[in-house]
Design goal:
Layout: E1 2-9, H1 13-22, E2 33-35, E3 38-42, E4 55-59, H2 69-73, E5 79-82, E6 85-88, H3 93-105, E7 112-116, E8 129-134, E9 143-148, E10 151-156, H4 167-174, E11 182-185, H5 194-199, E12 203-208, H6 211-223, E13 230-234, E14 248-253, H7 263-269, E15 270-283, H8 289-299, E16 303-317, E17 320-331
Parallel strand pairs: 6-7, 11-12, 11-14, 12-13, 14-15
Antiparallel strand pairs: 1-3, 1-4, 2-3, 5-6, 7-8, 9-10, 15-17, 16-17
């Protein structure tokens, strides 16, 4: 039966499917068709599909809908999938156990179910997890492999910070990369920016305070075939300002709440012209003000600061937004 479908290359299929699923646009009554390396994902409302995703009418197979946790529970639980690990956030132990049991009994491919057991804490931004279900293979229940826009990232959520919700935002930045760029990822984590940027042809320096994150990044660079284009550093990124002074064509500053405090280091790294992606979490009234003011103050008379884009990434909390300020520094002669 012909249905409107989003057309996407196979390597970008999972991230696109997740993006469409978050918007509740996937037509679950039909399966995904595959032809010549492209996936055809049926959608319920083609008018609501983002403009950058091409559409085509396509014959797709009818299918028996998968049994979901909601089918078993009678209500829609909130959870995130990260590879074959499912993450929930429930304060009530009985409700958490009920949701975990439904997830395991559903048709979702899952190896373990984890419940958030603390807030993000410390300089390394990790949290504690309660294991609600675990099939018990040789890997820790907190470790998985996440696939995103054609790349694979091994990650252990008990050791490093990682959010699958930011896949679309990361890809937006990566798509701006030109081959040969010098990119400094100031708070790199396991490499979700650094690795696809290197794959796009950039020379990348990746820094993180968390040695476990850098260990995963190095393994992920090998896994994705870009280890020769990434230089890693464990420690405070400000330790690199002398070695990489004036080196960067692009900076990624993804450390919400505190990235703006590193504006002086960003200016030190900047070449004659440098694009900066500075992430922040601020009140909905003037959410970009702190990032912009920090860059302008750090640039002083040395650089002109131009705002390229002010982007709301997602809602973070009531009246608080996770945002990204894209700006360019141009050296003043």
């Amino acid at each position: 039966m012909k249905r409107p479908c989003v057309v996407v290359a196979r390597e970008n299929g999972e991230a696109t499917r997740q993006h469409l699923a978050e918007a509740d646009l996937i037509d679950q009554s039909f399966g995904i068709a595959v032809e010549n390396g492209d996936l055809f994902i049926p959608v319920t409302d083609p008018d609501a599909v983002p403009e950058d995703l091409p559409l085509s009418d396509r014959d797709v197979p009818e299918r028996t809908p998968q049994q979901t946790p909601a089918d078993l529970l009678g209500y829609e639980p909130t959870y995130e999938r990260l590879g074959d690990v499912v993450l929930v956030d429930e304060d009530d132990p009985e409700r958490a156990a009920e949701i975990a049991e439904a997830i395991v009994e559903s048709d979702i491919p899952v190896r373990s179910v984890l419940n958030r057991d603390s807030k993000v804490k410390g300089e390394t931004r990790v949290r504690d997890w309660e294991v609600l279900a675990d099939e018990g293979d040789e890997r820790p229940p907190t470790e998985t492999v996440h696939r995103e826009y054609g790349h694979e990232f091994a990650v252990d959520v008990a050791e490093v910070y990682f959010s699958p919700r930011l896949a679309t935002e990361r890809n937006r930045v990566v798509e701006q990369i030109e081959p040969g760029e010098h990119v400094l990822d100031m708070f790199a984590g396991v490499g979700p920016y650094a690795i696809p940027m290197a794959d796009a042809g950039a020379e990348v320096v990746a820094c993180d305070l968390n040695p476990d994150a850098i260990a995963y990044l190095e393994a992920n660079a090998e896994r994705n075939g870009v280890a020769d284009r990434i230089t890693t550093h464990v420690g405070d990124v400000r330790e690199l300002t002398e070695e990489y002074e004036g080196w960067a064509d692009r900076l990624v500053m993804n450390l919400p709440h505190t990235a703006a405090e590193f504006a002086d280091a960003a200016v030190a790294f900047a070449g004659d012209s440098c694009v900066i992606h500075l992430y922040d979490i601020q009140h909905e009234d003037g959410p970009f003000d702190r990032a912009r003011e920090a860059l302008v103050a750090a640039a002083g008379d040395e650089y002109e600061v131009t705002t390229l884009e002010e982007r709301v990434v997602r809602s973070y909390a009531p009246h608080e937004l996770n945002v990204c300020l894209d700006a360019r520094l141009d050296r003043i002669d």
